[in-house]
Amino acid sequence: MQLSPEQRVAKLTRWKNPPSEAEEQRLERARRMVTRAVQQHPRFAGLGLSVEAKGSWANKTNVSSDSDVDIKVEFTQRAYHGISASGMSYWEQVQQRNSYNGPWTPEAFREELGVALKGVSSAVDATHNVAFYVPDVPGSRPSTDVVPCFTYLHEPGWGRPTAQGTVVFTKDGQHVVNWSHQQLINGREKNNRTGRRYKFAVRALKAVENDLVRLGEIKDLPSYFMECLIYNVPDPVLTAGSLDTAFEGALTHLRHQVSFWWGNPNALIEPNEIKKLFHSGQKWKIDDARQLLDAAWHYLNYG
Q: What angle do CA 60, 144, 196 make, to 5 degrees?
């Protein structure tokens, strides 16, 4: 299926709009729900816990009012350290685990957060590997993924500055390092530099991906992947001409970057500017980018 030029422009025009005030209020109600659960839980009294929204809702790049909200609950009184931006080595984990004698292990914190959340919602799903899932309340707040995490300090050495992120210890014994604060700040700056074209293009690519999945053209991909791709589009490409011209230019640039023959995918980064876009630990591969971008080009009837 291909859109006509008129259909394409109509869709792009619709996708340019950021989340509405009503959507912002739904996000705030989700954040307040998690904050209330943490503040009223007796075992959390006096602990340094930070509750913040992250992901597409926080960054104003969500494309559907019924998409999940991501809320992180960060334990700030215990920090983990690593020389890698992607995570700790086995020996770094062993050393830090053996040097800690307190009660708040990752397993204990996850269990206690689950108890706290069940104090405000009886429908909490604790079976997921990374986050607790709290179903939506129709007309009030969206479904919410609540992520228990600890402060993570990336200490690369050689005189380079320490960066602060978060680390999530998953139920299967793995861990994931996130840089949501850097993502938020860098995204805002790029959006300002491009006259809000950056977040428009992110929403557009997410919406195209949703359409392509519904049509059976590609597999479902994490929405963050689309944000990462657009972040690597140069500012002048995003500010050139109309919305239609800018988005065509963005796809052209990205298709060149991931091309098998002349691309340079290793130069692509995440919006946090700390992690590479493609490495062994990611949920996506270079082929996913090629298939998405080629399918988007064909669906939008460019060229």
A: 5
Q: What topology is assigned to 19-178 in CATH?
A: Beta Polymerase; domain 2 (3.30.460)
The Cα 80–Cα 154 span in angstroms is 9
Please report the pLDDT score of residue 198 as a whole number.
96
One-letter identity of residue 71: I
- Average pLDDT for 137-148: 88
Are 146 and 34 in contact by the 8 Å Cβ rule? The answer is yes
pLDDT tens sequence across 46-56: 998 999 988 88
Contact assessment for residue 120 and residue 132, using Cβ atoms and an 8 Å cutoff: no
146 DSSP β-pair partners: 71, 132
The answer to which of 35-49, 134-148, 200-214 has the lowest mean pLDDT is: 134-148
Give the integer Cα–Cα distance in Å for 184 and 165.
12
C-beta separation of 230 from 250 below 8 A: yes
- Would you say 132 and 124 are in contact if contact means Cβ atoms under 8 Å apart? yes
- Count Cβ atoms below 10 Å from residue 161 Cβ, excluding itself: 7
Q: Do 232 and 270 contact (CB within 8 A), yes or no?
A: no
State percent of the chain over pLDDT 90. Answer: 77
Q: Is the pLDDT of residue 235 over 80?
A: yes
Q: Contact at 8 Å (CB) between 6 and 300? A: no
**Alpha carbon separation from 42 to 3, 38, 121, 132 (Å, rounded):** 56, 9, 16, 20
Q: Give the separation between CA 152 and CA 135, rounded to whole angstroms.
A: 29
Query: Beta-strand (E) ranges in the chain?
Result: 49-54, 69-82, 132-134, 144-154, 163-169, 175-178
In angstroms, the Cα distances linking 51 to 5, 32, 58, 286, 287 are 44, 9, 12, 34, 36
